[in-house]
Design a protein that fits this description.
The chain has 15 helices and 15 strands. By secondary structure, the chain is an alpha/beta fold. The strands form 3 sheets. A 7-stranded parallel sheet has the order 3-2-1-4-5-6-7, sandwiched between helices. A 6-stranded parallel sheet has the order 12-9-8-13-14-15, with helices on both faces. Strands 10-11 form a two-stranded antiparallel ribbon. β10 and β11 form a beta hairpin.
């Protein structure tokens, strides 16, 4: 079986890398003779990755020809609406012309691409694939009410199969009338193995708190509380330094110049480095390597969804500073509730909200870890079965 993974924006985002890595492994197990290619906006990032199951990384950002009419129309519409950066649109134009329309099954691995309103370039992109008779699969997706604009809903209907990564999305799809070839499997990245590197000096295994912060999360602050997110991280670190004997490891998970977690984390590091208990991973590691660090933490607080997935899947007690439906629905699937597990950034009323929530987490730390140890193995198993479900679907269709 021949597969193409598309709507991938590069491995500088370690969540994107984790999805490619884990999906490739799953497909190779379910389809031993499979040939898998990856189309990447930033091929130089992916070519540095050790993707054992990806046959080739195809650069899609070198084509300079004119976009096809359907995509050009979408491009102009989006530029007028100023809802997408023109470089992103040019990427999809080039991609559409670069993709070989041979007999492959196309897996769209951008799990949250429908979570930010209208997505005209996806509509044009998928229409071109269907024009060539290709099977398309929306893989490991999250959706919310804003995903179902009329045009988005029509585009979602064109997929041959949709794999929801949490039950909230699966239920919503069924409520919206999507009842055929809709499957529920946890995020593929739950299956990603960890790679353990030597720990940084000062890291106390089992007594270090991992912290991830993202510039993206601050965009979702309540308008009446602008700046509260950064102050909340400061209060959190001060609480850990004052009320525990733990070290702190600041862990970036996205390394793009326009959305680099290290900017915020370095500011925090510089403020507290004199304590000798606050450390930072200031260079880029692979998704597996970052998971190796996270797995050896006592607890983890994260904003990036896939940093928290790395923690959950390692059975590390985790608190999420949430900004999207993804974090809420994953917590609901794992724990049956969000209270005590997710702090929505738009509900932070003051700078102590995050540290208070973490204090409560420490008070129930052993119970939290016990619940994860009981539930995560089955969750990982179900995530790993997604490719087998895809195999059965492709066999029957």
């Amino acid at each position: 079986m021949r597969f193409a993974l598309y709507h991938h924006v590069g491995s500088g985002n370690k969540g994107c890398e984790a999805l490619v890595d884990s999906t490739g492994s799953m497909l190779s197990r379910a389809f031993p003779e499979s040939d898998i290619v990856l189309y990447s906006l930033r091929p130089e990032e992916d070519e540095r990755c050790e993707y054992a199951d990806i046959a080739s990384v195809i650069p899609v950002s070198t084509y300079t020809g004119e976009p096809l009419p359907a995509l050009e129309k979408a491009y102009l519409k989006l530029l007028r609406a100023r809802s997408v950066h023109s470089a992103d649109m040019r990427y999809y134009a080039r991609t559409l012309r670069t993709l070989p329309m041979e007999d492959r099954v196309f897996l769209s691995i951008g799990g949250d691409t429908y979570c930010y309103g209208e997505n005209s370039f996806m509509h044009a992109f998928n229409a071109e694939l269907k024009r060539h008779g290709r099977k398309t699969v929306l893989w490991g997706c999250s959706l919310d009410e804003t995903s179902f604009t009329p045009d988005n809903a029509a585009d979602l209907q064109t997929y041959d199969a949709i794999f929801a990564r949490e039950s909230g999305t699966y239920t919503l799809l069924r409520e919206k009338g999507f009842t055929k070839n809709i499957f529920l499997h946890p995020d593929p990245a739950f299956t990603l193995p960890a790679k353990e590197l030597p720990l940084p000096e000062g890291f106390v295994a089992g007594n270090t708190i991992g912290i991830n912060a993202s510039p993206l999360v601050f965009k979702y602050e309540n308008n009446d509380q602008k700046g509260v997110g950064m102050h909340a991280y400061e209060k959190l670190i001060e609480f850990i330094l004052r009320d525990t004997d733990c070290s702190v490891l600041l862990i970036p998970h996205v390394f793009w110049s326009f959305s680099d977690d290290r900017g915020i984390l370095m500011r925090l590091y510089e403020k507290y480095r004199s304590t000798s208990r606050v450390l930072i991973l200031d260079k880029e590691y692979s998704a597996r390597e970052l998971k190796g660090f996270i797995a050896r933490c006592r607890a983890f607080i994260g904003a990036r969804t896939h940093s928290t997935i790395a923690a959950y899947s390692s059975c590390v007690p985790t608190l999420v500073l949430g900004y999207s439906v993804k974090s809420v629905n994953i917590a609901l699937d794992l724990f049956g509730k969000t209270d005590g597990f997710v702090v929505p950034v738009d509900e932070l009323e003051d700078a102590t909200g995050l540290s208070r929530a973490f204090d409560r987490l420490l008070q129930t730390e052993q119970l939290h870890r016990q619940v994860l140890n009981e539930r995560v193995p089955d969750y990982i198993r179900k995530a790993g079965e997604a490719a087998m479900t895809l195999r059965d679907f492709l066999t029957e269709s």
